[in-house]
Each structure stands twice: as C-alpha cells, then as structure tokens.
Amino acid sequence: MTVKMRHIRHFLVLLPVILLTACVGFFNGEDQNLTAQERFPITVEPDMVTLEIAAEPGHRRTNSAQRAQLKALAAEYQYRGHGVIKVAAPNGAVNTASASALAKNIVANLTASGVQAAQVKRTTYVPSSGSAAAPVMISFTRYVASVSKCGLWDDSMSNNPRNTPNRNFGCATQNNLAAMLDDPYDLVAPRGMGPASADRRSTILKSYREGETTGAKRSQSESGTVSKVKDN
Questions:
Q1: How would you classify the pairing of strands 81-90 and 120-125?
Q2: What is the pLDDT of residues 107-165, one digit of tens each?
Q3: With the C-alpha atoms ordered 220, 221, 227, 232, is the resulting torsion angle positive or negative?
Q4: Could you tell me the domains of the chain?
Q5: pTM for the complete prediction?
Q6: Are 85 and 77 in contact (CB under 8 A)?
C-alpha cells in the first residue's frame, strides 16, 4: 500500500504539469507563435514624386512661387530621394521651344538648391495633345512604408482561457516604427558608410604616440563624484 500511495502522490504532483502541457499543445498552434513582425509586416514600396511647372509660350524662366516649389522638392529629394531627378520637357507641343528653355532653368534651380548636377537628368516626353501648351514634368522616386491592417477590436481580454495573444498585439508598435523611419528604404538595404573624420583620427593617433590620454577631457560639471555633505 505504501508503494501504491507513493505512486499516486507522484502522479497527483505531475498531473497539473501534464494537463498544462496538453493544453498548450492542443490549443496554441502556429498562428499563436507568430511574432509582431510576422503578424504585421512593414511593406516598403516605391512612390513617384511629381511636380508640374506650367510652360506657357514665351515663359522661359521660373517665377518666385515655382522656385519655392523646386526648393522644397530638392529638399525632399536630398532627404529620401533615390535614383535621379528627371526633368522632362514636352516634345512636339506648341510651347516646345519655351519649355526646353524653362527646363534648363529648372535644372539650374535644382543645382542651386544643393542637388548635384549628376543627379539631374533632362529628358523629353510626347504630350497627349500636341496643339496645347504642356508643362515641364519633374519627378523622382522615394520609398514609403506601410503596415498591414490591424485585427478586429472586439476581442474580450477578460475571457481568454487559451491565453493566446490579442489579434492586435504588436500592431501599434509596427505602425509607430513605420511612421518614424527616416528613410523607409533602410529596411530594404543599409546605407553606405560616410567618410571618417580624418582630423579627429589624427588627433587621437598623435596623443597615442606621445603616450597621452586619447579620450576627451571632461569638464568639472561632467564629474561623476558624489558631493560631500557635512553633518551639523
């Protein structure tokens, strides 16, 4: 009887573990093992930024409002643009000559705003109607990030006997990450490394060769010492 009772006690001790393991294997499957990144993936897709500059016959230079638009476009291109900026003038329209001169002026405005000349490509296009004045088209490619739609919000968090994650778990985090990306293309491929600081490197090497401290000196306000308080 003693041996049987001992086996029974061991079985009773292990019974909760057995039941818990059975529940986990029975109720929770592959869908419950998905991470937030797998459940709500961030999709990066190209987006074409386009600006049209009207080119009326005889209109060969940009006005102040158009220059402001070009400056804003150049800033956006330098921030997250990829490839080249295309400046397309109409070919075969009534304003072809003035549009070609305007396109040249547009290129000058872009380079004056900080865009390198090699990053601007002049081209032409055939307008749908050759009899009307057609605009000069400026365009470049950037990338935008989006997250798959979140789940339903009608789940009862107070009744979850299977202890499965909520269908929206991680959705807000993924959306916030997509919104905070400096350039969504960073998720596609890493950026190239910038040039090293030769001046700082020379300073560190000079101090190292002379046996001096290579770290930057701290000021008195940066000290980590604890102040001494005098007891009365």
A1: parallel
A2: 999 999 999 999 999 999 998 876 678 999 999 999 999 988 887 777 777 887 777 77
A3: positive
A4: 46-143 (3.30.1330.60)
A5: 0.65
A6: yes
